Amino acid sequence: MLQRGGTYVISVDKGIPLIHKDMPIGQVEKESLEGLTKAGFLLDSGPDGAGLVRKFISRGGGYYIDAWCSQLIIDGKVKVSQIPNGIKEFVQDGIVLADGSKLEADLVVPATSYDGMKSTARKLLGDKAADRTRETWHLDEQGEIRSMWRSSGHPHFWFTGGSLALCSSYSRLLALRIKAVEEGLLKQ
Description:
The protein has helices at residues 25-28, 30-38, 52-59, 70-74, 117-125, 127-132, 164-182; strands at 2-3, 8-11, 63-66, 81-82, 87-91, 94-97, 102-104. By secondary structure, it is α/β, with parallel strands linked by helices. The strands form 3 sheets. It has a 3-stranded antiparallel sheet with strand order 5-6-7, with no helix packed on it. Strands 1-4 form a two-stranded parallel sheet. Strand 6 and strand 7 (102-104) form a beta hairpin. The protein is globular and about 60 Å long. The model has no long low-confidence stretch (mean pLDDT 85).
């Protein structure tokens, strides 16, 4: 595993149930987090140390809900290397890093972040349309996640993202909003 930056890690069996309780996740996850750090995995506790929810709200990513892969890293079955400058190119038998060094690999599976939704909209719609869209993620003045599952700022263009569970829930809300716009019940 090649890692360009830190990731917030929480386990599905111990950590997720604590999100709705008043117990510090870091204490319950301490052994696992220390094992990951010892194995070379770079951790990030989120903006101001606020963890998973703030990581999601602020950027829609940068976290990993561990479904038992962390133990493979801790046990050394999955190796971790830090590559803050990224990959220069893919070659037939591996990858060349930005510093010019080469890593041989039979298989490369990109599991990477993204530039952001507005830059993706720019690639899909062009500059004029993308310039009409608002920034996504973080909280707006009403305390809602900016431009997600509601008007993007460009007519008839909507942003949705996040985990499968959130997309499943919020896609229903978005569908109702789109229907309300189509029926003239809601201005965009």
